[in-house]
Amino acid sequence: MNTTRSSPSSSPWLPGVAAVALVGAVVVAGIAGGWTADDGEGGPTASTDPARRGATTQRGPVATVSVDTVAPRRKSRLDDPVGFGMYGDDVTKVQRRLKKLSFDPGPIDGNFGERTRAAVWGFEKLVLGVDAAEATGVVTQRVWSRMQDRIVIEPRRPESTDSHTEIYLPEQMVIFFRRDEPVLTSHMSSGDNAEWCDDVVISPGEYGNAEGTEPLRRRECGVSITPGGVFNFERKVEGLRQSALGGLWNPVYFNYGIAIHGAMTVPLEPASHGCVRVPIETSERFQDILRLGDQVFVFDGVKEPEEYGAQLPVFNKIDPEWLATSTTSTLPP
């Protein structure tokens, strides 16, 4: 019997599918009931030709989902929908399945916390095709049934570097691949395209204070854009760093000061100054996964990354009003 502390709002699951062709998209193929373990232990499998399997194929803006209609196998059920703040055996089943699919639900402990919610958001956006702003983080019986399908996540850019990363701005998702197999799939938050002016602190060695020996403080203005394009990881730093784009936990840089990094807050909507935020615990995992020189493909939904190449970011400027009244200063160590 599943025990819970609270009951989430059970919004109906709406499959985000439309009859549109995909050009170089992430492919997520689900073969329904392709495994039998009740606790969700079945892992990803190779793609299967729908014509030979008698499968139906639904195409959407994010994924291709194929469902076996010939010989579906037994699936387990949840006692009730599960969501944030709940705990029990059903939560454990969901966490195990998400981890098998390369998402990061956190410890398999039966507690539906923020990391598990972020992993469910990712599943909704990537596999179900739910709009990024409409993900609920709630696992209903219909979502759990789809989660038990035999699912394949394939890169949009196979056969690049031995390991590579793909960032999907419209879906607010990032996937780390090794030999074209997903090893970590995460919800993320990128730049919101807004103009800003903030007081910033820049750690020594960071862009804007590369030769400094002490933290630099000044007021800068910029535009919160995450540029599309093809890049390479250039540098990674463990721990907390301060930059003109804000506080970065375990940053891995790929476009001047723009990095993938951990953050305390990773909302559903774009909210960064241009970096790619992921949950702070997830950043501790990708430090071991990413390698300097790995390719990074940023898909913005407008052009293919190769059309941009290594597109430069929008560089910040020192606030002229601050410059007229202040002198650049350093902070004590």
Summarize the structure.
The chain has helices at residues 50-53, 89-100, 114-126, 141-147, 280-289, 305-308, 320-325; strands at 27-31, 55-59, 64-68, 150-154, 163-168, 173-178, 181-187, 195-202, 216-223, 229-232, 235-236, 240-243, 246-255, 258-263, 276-279, 295-299, 317-318, 329-330. With 333 residues, it is an alpha+beta fold.
Structure description:
The protein is of the alpha+beta class and 333 residues long. It has two domains: 27-154, Orthogonal Bundle (Muramoyl-pentapeptide Carboxypeptidase, domain 1), CATH 1.10.101; 195-322, Beta Barrel (L,D-transpeptidase catalytic domain-like). The protein is built from seven helices and 18 strands. The chain is globular, with a radius of gyration of 21 Å. The chain starts with 26 loop residues before the first strand and ends with a strand.
Key features?
Muramoyl-pentapeptide Carboxypeptidase, domain 1; alpha+beta; 5-stranded mixed sheet; L,D-transpeptidase catalytic domain-like; 333 residues; disordered N terminus
Indicate the CATH class of the largest domain.
Mainly Alpha
Q: Strand percentage, roughly?
A: 25-35%
**CATH homology group of the largest domain:** PGBD-like superfamily/PGBD
Structural class: alpha+beta
DSSP helix count? 7
Q: Give the SSE order as H and E letters.
A: EHEEHHHEEEEEEEEEEEEHEHEHE
What share of the residues lie within helices? Answer: 10-25%
**Broad shape:** globular
How large, in whole angstroms, is the Cα Rg?
Answer: 21 Å
CATH topology of the largest domain: Muramoyl-pentapeptide Carboxypeptidase, domain 1
**Residue ranges: pLDDT <50 for 5 or more in a row?**
1-25, 30-69, 328-333
User: Strand sequence of the main sheet, in spatial order?
Assistant: 7-6-5-16-10
Arithmetic mean pLDDT: 78
What is the count of structural domains?
2
